[in-house]
Every structure is written in C-alpha cells, then in structure tokens.
Write a structure and sequence with these properties.
It is a single chain. By secondary structure, the protein is mainly α. It has helices spanning 3-16, 22-33, 37-50, 57-70, 73-77. α1 runs antiparallel to α2 and α1 (3-16) runs parallel beside α3 (37-50). The model has no long low-confidence stretch (mean pLDDT 92).
Length: 87
C-alpha cells in the first residue's frame, strides 16, 4: 500500500478515535509527518487499549482492515474487549 494511503487512513482513524489526550494526538500526528506509519498506528491502538476507551464495532473493523495490511493484527485483536455492545 502506498505511504500516502497509510497517512490518510491513520489520520482519519485518529480523527474518529475516542482519544482526547492532546499529547497522544500530537505524537501520532508527528509520527505521520515523518513517515513513521507503524509507530503512528501502534501509538493510536496502544492508547485506546491503555486508556480502556470504548470503540464501535465499525471502528474496530476499520482498525482491523488496516492492521492486516500493516501486519499488526495482534495489536488490534487486543482491542476486542473495548468494542461497545450494540443496542
């Protein structure tokens, strides 16, 4: 996949994420700016996990799709516990 695609998709995931910590958002954006897409994606997923943030099934699927392409499936599978139950 092209680098511009990673940058765009990760930026969209960040914008749609439940992360509110300014320093985390800034770190992910910095990694994107210097082309460190794996670090940006890892940071995004790790903070969702560490802060025990709830995500939607659709958001998790978006993460999973990108994770398959980036060989980071385990990282996203760990987030299964944080998927909000659909009502």
């Amino acid at each position: 996949m092209q680098e511009s695609h990673y940058r765009r998709v990760i930026a969209e995931l960040l914008d749609d994420s439940p992360i509110t910590r300014g320093e985390v958002i800034g770190n992910v954006r910095e990694f994107l700016a210097v082309g460190e897409y794996s670090l940006a994606f890892d940071t995004l997923c790790e903070w969702i996990y560490e802060d025990d943030l709830t995500i939607s099934p659709a958001y998790h699927e978006r993460l999973r799709q990108l994770a398959e392409d980036m060989n980071a499936v385990k990282l996203v599978e760990d987030l299964r516990e944080q998927i909000a139950e659909e009502s």
